[in-house]
Every structure is written in structure tokens, then in C-alpha cells.
Amino acid sequence: MDFSAEARTLANRCEPLINDLARKITEVGFRDIPAYQSLPRDMREVEIAATVRHGLRFFLQTVNGERVPDPYRFYRERAAQRAEEGMPLHVLLRSYLTNRDMLWRALREVARPGEESALLELADLLFATQAALVGDVTETYTAEKTSRTHELRERQRSLIADLLTGTPAAPGQVDSLGLTGQIMVVVAPPRAHTTAVDTHRAARRLQTALERATGHRAIVHTDHHATHLLLALPGKPPGDPASTVHRVLTEEHGAPSRAARATAPGVMDIHRAATTAREVLRLVTLLDRAPGLYRLDDVLLEYHLNHPDDTGPLLRSLLTPVTADPALAETLRLYISHQQDRRAVARILGLHPNTVDNRIRRIGQHLGTDLTSPYGYALALAALTA
To answer: In the chain, where does DSSP find H-type helix?
Structure first.
């Protein structure tokens, strides 16, 4: 369409008002749209506002004769995203039509006497492009809702739920997840979300952040009980992936929080790792531990007291490097039996107390704890007893 110089002048008079007009449209124009106020705040104030600004600028580009390749691509992308997030189609379409109505009102407000003909030209443009816009948005939205992609996504969610609960899954099914090598299974408390859209968006943001930070495939599964993160660790990952995961969790939650992790040797071991991580998280929560990403070794004694059959072998393995050295093994046995009386141990062994102290320190290094602390002593006692 060719526009007169008067129509271009009138339209361009709105260009300095784009940001204010976009804010007015999202705050006032959409106020009466059903379900709009229940949408996540960042969707309303960032994404939808950006779509409104795009529409206003596209209108001005068209009036000024600028060629815009595939002008409705942005709207199709947004329509697919909204369909995935569960926004009702009528809400989406009404937001676009409200956008055009508010733009028409703005044009009328800035029009001056004698510009009636120019105003009619711009009205013709709004009506001429409206059908194409509504058609593209509706078609894309419907296609996304009914597409194989959506079905596969739901199927994948069900498959992940099965893996987390230990329900058998065929190897051919799990290959589609893209989880190769070892898998870090992280369990975090469930986030408080008011709507399904909010929950879905939070999970998608977390998954994207994890994949960007680690460079590996990540899957986030959220339900009412917990948030499960599955992170592929193919080969030997550079750096400390656990530290990266905890940093991403902190950034996404907006504050440090507790979480737990365990490693699954393969996809079929996810259930066992998730069960361990959930129990570790339960323990650190009950013990009121500081925010952090915990593993079984961090609460091994507490876990053992709750599940002695599960951790007995692990506790015994802690002493392997100690029992390999007869001097350290005898020192530990006497240290435990004499209830940390290092002078008595030194007297029995014919050593200086400082030598006993050095041995106790070395044993603690093997066990990953301080044997002179109450916890370290209890852990050594449990391991020796096991």
C-alpha cells in the first residue's frame, strides 16, 4: 500500500510515544481481558510489552514503505510459545485486537484538523492487516497445540516421571531423552507457583540456564513434591558441575536454598539416585543445615542411622585406606576404645602424644572429617563398628 505524505506524518507523530503507548496498552488496554491479570508478571511486563512495541514499530515501518520480510514471523513465534505455555487462544487474540484498538485511539488523539483523510488511510491499513495477523496467529497456535512436538513433550514428561519412580521403561524410549553417560540427579524443594503457566515457565528457564552454564543436556521435572534436575555428564566434565548447578539454582530461586544430589551411572539408575537425593534433602532440612547442594557423604552418619542396610558398605569403605596401614588402624582402634584419650593411646603404643595427634589427623583426612569433633568421632565409631 502507498500512503500519502500526510498519512506518514500523522503516523510518525506516534513514534516518540511508542514506549508510553506500549505501557498504556499493557496496563490499561489489557486490564479487562479475562485471565490477563493471572499471567506471570514478567510475561505481562516484559514479553507481552515487547510484542506490543514490535506491533507499533511494524505499523510505522509499513506506513513509511519499509520492506519487512515475513512480517508476521514474530507473531507466529509468540503464538507457538503461548500455546506451549497454555494461554487460551481467545486471550491471545483479544490482546492483539486490543493493541490495534489502542493504536487507533492514539492516532485519533494526535490527529489535527484537516488530517481526516490521512486518518482514514491509516484505518484502512489497520483493517487490511488484521485478517492476516489473526489468521497466522490462530493457525500457528492451533498447530502447536495439536502438533507431534507437543505430544512428544507430554510423552517425555511421562517417561521422566516413570524413571523417577522406578517404573520400567524401554531402552528405545530413554534414548530420546538425550541423557548420555553419568547423570547428576538434583532434588530441590518445589517452588510455590500459582498457575500451571508459571510452573512451566520456571522449569523452562531453569533448564535453559543449566544447559547454558554447563554445556550439557539438562531436564527439569517439577511436581507438587519436588523439583528434579537431570544433568548429563558425558565424559569428565570441566570444572565442578555441582558448583555450577548450585549457582544456577541460587540465581533462579533468587536466594540460596538447600538441594541434594546423587549420581546415576546411567538412565536406568535415575530412580535410585533420585531416592537417595530426596532422603538427603529431607535430612538436611530436618537438621536445618545451611543452604547448599548436599550429597550423601555430607550426611553419611545421619543417613546410616536411618538406613543402616544401605550405607553399611559405604561406611566400611571409608576405612579401607586406614586399615591398609596397620599403624593407623591400631591407633584408630585404641583411640575409639579409649574414648579419644590420646595420652592413653600414646602410652600404650609407646609414642609421643604429638605422634598420636598426627596419626589421628591423617585418619581424619582419609575419612574426610575431624576425628576430634563430636561428629567425626561418631562417624569413625560407626565405620569401625560396621
So the answer is: 5-12, 18-24, 41-42, 49-63, 73-85, 89-110, 116-146, 148-165, 171-175, 196-214, 241-253, 270-286, 300-306, 308-318, 320-323, 326-337, 342-349, 353-367, 374-385
CATH of domain 5-146: 1.10.490
Q: List every span in the chain annotated with CATH 1.10.490.
A: 5-146
CATH 1.10.10.2840 in the chain is located at: 313-385
Q: Is residue 237 over pLDDT 60?
A: no
CATH of domain 313-385: 1.10.10.2840
* Burial classification of residue 351, based on how many CB atoms lie within 10 Å of its CB (0-12 exposed, 13-18 middle, 19 or more buried): middle
Cα 384 to chain center, whole Å?
41
What cell does 198 get?
508459571
Confidence of residue 193 (pLDDT cuts 50, 70, 90): low
pLDDT at 290: 87
Q: What is the pLDDT of residues 50-70, one digit of tens each?
A: 888 888 888 888 888 888 778
pLDDT tens profile 78-118: 888 888 888 888 888 888 888 888 889 889 999 899 999 99
Long-range contact list for 247-256, CB < 8 A, 24+ apart? 247/213, 248/206, 248/209, 248/210, 248/213, 249/186, 249/188, 249/206, 249/293, 250/291, 251/209, 252/202, 252/205, 252/206, 252/209, 253/188, 253/191, 255/291, 256/291, 256/292
Side chain identity at 22, as an amino acid letter? A
State CA 250 to chain mean position distance.
10
Q: What is the second-level CATH architecture of the domain 181-294?
A: 2-Layer Sandwich (3.30)
What is the rounded CA–CA span in Å between residue 69 and residue 275?
A: 52
Q: CA 98 → CA 37, 48, 58, distances in Å?
A: 15, 12, 16
According to DSSP, residue 225 is labeled S
Q: Is the per-residue pLDDT at 293 higher than 60? A: yes
